Amino acid sequence: MGRFLVSENDWDWLGHGVYFWEGEVRAHEWATQRFGKEAAVIQAKINLGLCLDLCDSGYWDIVRGAYERLKDSFEKQGKPLPEN
């Protein structure tokens, strides 16, 4: 069996790693666009436990507040914010 391909794009939300699609239909669309007739999709059941769901708008205020605190901290130290 082959290994998962690690994504190392500049635009990856959470840095380099293996990303999973939540919906199998979208996963298949992406795989077909990228690999054509060689496309394959496997299903994984992942228990996320305590997880921050960035697609759930109920968490956006928490993320926004954390960002503002981080930004303020870096500004007080005279340092630029890190970039992904």
Word description of this protein:
With 84 residues, the chain is mainly alpha-helical. It has two domains: 1-46, no CATH class; 49-84. 35% of the residues lie in helices and 0% in strands. It contains two helices and no strands. It has helices at residues 24-35, 60-76. The two termini are 31 Å apart. The model has no long low-confidence stretch (mean pLDDT 88).
List the helices and strands and how they pair.
Layout: H1 24-35, H2 60-76
Estimate the helix proportion, in percent. Answer: 25-40%
Number of helices: 2
The gross shape turns out to be: elongated
**Major sheet description:** none
- For the record, give the distance between the C-alpha atoms at the N and C termini, rounded to a whole number: 31 Å
Number of structurally distinct domains: 2
Low-confidence stretches: none
Summarize this structure briefly.
The protein is mainly α. It has helices at residues 24-35, 60-76.
What keywords describe this structure?
mainly alpha, 2 helices, 35% helix, 0% strand, 84 residues, single chain
